[in-house]
Amino acid sequence: MVSLVADHAHGPEQEKRHMNAVRTLSASALIAALALATSGCSHMTRQDKSTVAGAAIGGVAGSVLTDGSAAGTVGGAVVGGVIGHEIEKKR
Questions:
Q1: Nearest 5 degrees, angle CA 63-CA 24-CA 57?
Q2: Residue extents of the structural domains in the chain
Q3: Distances (CA, A) of 67 to 50, 62, 64
Q4: pLDDT range class, residue 69, cuts 50, 70, 90
Q5: Angle, CA 63 vertex, CA 80 and CA 82 arms, to 5°
Q6: Predicted TM-score (pTM) of this structure
Q7: To the nearest 10°, the Cα dihedral for 49, 52, 56, 59?
Q8: How many separate helices (H) and strands (E) can be counted in the chain?
Q9: Which carries the bigger pLDDT value, residue 31 or residue 76?
Q10: For 24-44, what is each residue's pLDDT tens digit?
C-alpha cells in the first residue's frame, strides 16, 4: 500500500521521489480534467477555451514552481487564465 505521508526514516532522497510522484499524478489529473471540461463544453467560445487551458497550465506550473503551495497554484492559474484570455482575444 502506498503511503501519502512522507517517511522521514528513509531520508530526503525518498521524500524527493515521493514529491515528484505526487506532482506527476497531480499534473496528470489536472490535464485529464481539462480535457474532459473542454470536450464537454462545445458551447464555449475559443476565447473561453483558451482561458480555461491557460488557467490549467498556469496552475500546474505554479504548483510545480512553488513545491505544491496553494498560493502558487492559484496564482499560476490566475496568471495563466489571463494570458490565455488575452492571447485568444488578439487572434
A1: 45
A2: 9-89
A3: 25, 8, 5
A4: confident
A5: 10
A6: 0.59
A7: 150
A8: 3, 0
A9: 76
A10: 777 777 777 777 766 666 788
